[in-house]
Design goal:
The chain is an alpha+beta fold. Helix content is 40%, strand content 25%. It has helices at 2-19, 28-39, 45-57, 81-93, 99-110, 115-122, 137-151, 231-237, 258-265, 289-297, 308-322; strands spanning 26-27, 62-65, 71-74, 153-157, 160-162, 168-170, 177-187, 190-197, 202-207, 216-221, 246-254, 270-275, 278-286, 302-306.
Length: 323
């Protein structure tokens, strides 16, 4: 009997979570009908009230709208509806998650909401309109990298690019890279692993979705991360994670570009006002095509003023492009 009571309480909680919310409370009769039709359980109306009181004593936030026919609904949930919407939209928008896996994850998140809220969550989500990968191997790659980080072990993997025929071509002549992973970083809608590359003999990055398959976790201990190394500073400097030559540059910006600089380099970026309409930002950047392209996009609003050799490199690049 006690086992049956525990089972019924769990089912009662499930029914309330699935079929009720603040805008859709359920009556005692409705609860009895759901229990009968979906679970084959016939109970007396007084048992419904008793079970709900037991759930409340156990800490479940069951709210009651008292009237001639009491109505019940789940109040606070593990995830509030705005939180679920945020998570669902992030999943649907992610270039890292396949369309199939997106729908699976969104469906699982829907279990934290009522059936009515699930409709609200899904109504504006169209993952097929987003750029999505086709291979789900990235989940297993991330899992393996995390395991290696936790175990302080090196990993070994092959890495690919694309040729002019849109065919995958393994880099490093098909030979695997040996890498000491320090951290996984989400940047520009992609996952990157930051760590020490044995081949390049320096700290660098690899984009996770370009790793051919789940890396091997080696028995060899990872090369320790230097005490002076900051993942945060590194990712700010390596523009869009292209690991090129780096330099500390001064950018003269119009006042309305402050939000752009903060969005790109963070609130702790070093800035100094020049006059009421201009300021100079001192930033460490990776001298990659992405940096120069970003800079060019703002025209006269953001001007590269130093160091001189970087300015000359940028000028030569522009002159070459203009022919």
């Amino acid at each position: 009997m006690e086992k049956d009571n525990k089972k019924r309480l769990l089912i009662m909680k499930e029914v309330l979570e699935k079929y009720s919310d603040e805008e859709h409370p359920v009556t005692t009769v409705q609860i009895m009908d759901i229990l009968n039709k979906e679970y084959g359980m016939k109970i007396h109306r007084t048992t419904v009230g008793k079970d709900i009181n037991d759930l409340i004593e156990m800490g479940v936030d069951v709210q009651c709208q008292r009237s001639t026919q009491n109505r019940y609904f789940i109040g606070s949930r593990y995830f509030e509806l705005p939180e679920l919407k945020l998570l669902v939209d992030a999943i649907a928008s992610s270039k890292f998650i396949t369309e199939k896996k997106s729908y699976e994850l969104i469906s699982k998140l829907g279990a934290f909401a009522s059936i009515y809220q699930q409709d609200e969550i899904r109504r504006n989500i169209r993952t097929e309109t987003r750029v999505k990968p086709h291979n789900e191997r990235s989940f297993y790659i991330v899992d393996a990298i995390n395991s290696a980080i936790n175990k302080n072990r090196k990993i070994r993997f092959t890495y690919y690019d694309y040729n002019v025929n849109k065919e995958k071509v393994l880099r490093n002549d098909g030979n695997p890279y040996v890498f000491s992973p320090y951290s996984l970083v989400w940047n520009g809608d992609y996952y990157y692993v930051v760590g020490f590359s044995d081949k390049h003999e320096k700290i660098g990055t690899f984009r996770v979705d370009r790793i051919e398959s789940a890396p091997d976790i080696l028995e060899e201990a990872a090369i320790p991360m230097p005490e002076s190394f900051s993942i945060s500073d590194f990712t700010k400097a390596v523009f869009q994670m292209y690991d090129e030559e780096r330099a500390v540059a001064e950018l003269k910006c119009t006042a309305d570009m402050m939000k752009v600089i903060i969005d790109r380099f963070g609130e702790d970026v070093k800035t100094e006002a020049v006059d009421e309409n201009h300021f100079v930002a001192t930033v460490e950047v990776s001298l990659s095509p992405n940096f120069y392209g970003w800079l060019f996009g703002f025209g006269e609003k953001i001007q590269l003023v130093s160091p001189r050799w970087v300015v000359e490199k940028y000028r030569n690049m522009l002159e070459k492009e203009l022919g």
